[in-house]
Specification:
Oligomer: single chain
Number of domains: 1
Number of strands: 12
Shape: globular
Strand order of the largest sheet: 5-8-7-6-9-10-12-11
CATH class: Alpha Beta
Number of helices: 9
Structural class: alpha/beta
Distance between the termini: 21 Å
CATH topology: Rossmann fold
Bound molecules: S-adenosylmethionine, zinc ion
Length: 271
């Protein structure tokens, strides 16, 4: 059965009427020309800045993270054959595009609070497949979907809305939480900071889920020229780094760094 949007105001079903999603009480959400819907209108939260979204789009399009996107597709395939999947905090949609190649029949939805990220994702989707209406601007802690809608939810380098994910997952559905491994971006960190630390390896427990496995990969890349600043700007280090440390990066033309990724896999336990 097709995944339906739930009206964030009255929780009734939203249906497509012309270029808008409308519920029976006439709450109306217009679709932007790129083919996404904004459920966060009037809210102040904003997610990543437009600059971060543009840097992430440019950097990911160069293929440095293709080993990681393969790990994501392989991991999803190992545990399930989804007919419906949600990327909660999807950014500009890089991983959903890869998942679409692997699971062409599945309904793949993406949500993110950053309007620019969702705009870029929806625009690419429309160009690729002509499909509109799969991306929306909204927070991951209040999803515009009904209970038991998805076979899988993925969360990649994003906050985890575990309670909402449990709600929208079908019984026995899977949640994939992907983030940095121990040595992720070690070369980038050494180029910027005097003292560097490895990332903590932790496996979190989530209510309503049972941990079923961990998938990981690591490899080295040489990042070149303007890709170095794009990489840096799409990471959380961007918020935390002094101007003088940042300037060290502007002088580099090549940066060798390890990339290391981990995906924790959870199964939804429902009555
Ligand atoms: C580090 S980025 C990762 C984006 C994407 N998953 C990727 O790996 O390319 C984190 C994303 O989470 C989004 N985000 C942060 N808080 C959010 C929230 N409460 N609801 C929805 N999205 C959120 C940001 O806007 C950003 O796009
Ligand atoms: Zn409504």
């Amino acid at each position: 059965m097709a995944v339906l949007y739930k009206c964030p105001v009255c929780e009734d079903v939203l249906e497509m009427r012309g270029k808008s999603l409308v519920c029976t009480k006439r709450h109306t959400f217009d679709m932007a020309k790129e083919g996404y819907v904004n459920f966060a209108l009037g809210k102040n939260d904003s997610g990543d800045s437009a600059e971060m979204c543009a840097c992430r789009r440019r950097f990911l399009s160069k293929g440095y993270y293709s080993g990681f996107s393969k790990l994501i597709c392989d991991s999803v395939e190992k545990y399930t054959d989804p007919t419906s999947l949600l990327d909660a905090g999807c950014g500009e949609g890089y991983y959903l595009r890869k998942l679409r190649e692997r699971f062409p029949q599945a309904e793949l939805f993406g949500v993110d609070l950053a309007k620019e990220a969702v705009r870029l994702a929806a625009k690419s989707e429309k160009q690729m497949s002509g499909i509109k209406n799969l991306y929306s601007v909204c927070g991951i802690f209040s999803l515009p979907f009904f209970d038991n809608s998805f076979d899988a939810v993925i969360s990649i380098f994003a906050p985890v809305g575990d309670a909402e994910n449990a709600r929208v997952l079908k019984s026995g559905g899977y949640m994939f939480v992907a983030g940095p491994g121990k040595t992720h971006l070690s070369g980038l960190k050494s180029a910027v900071y005097e003292k560097t630390y490895e990332n903590e390896e932790k496996t979190r427990e989530y209510d309503g889920f049972c941990f079923v496995g961990k998938e990981s990969c690591k490899y080295s890349v040489t990042v070149e020229d303007e890709d170095i600043l794009d990489l840096f700007t799409m990471t959380p280090y961007y918020w935390k780094t002094s101007k003088s440390d940042f300037e060290k990066l502007t002088k580099l033309t090549k940066l060798e760094t390890e990339l290391s990724f981990e995906i924790s896999v959870y199964k939804a336990l429902k009555q």
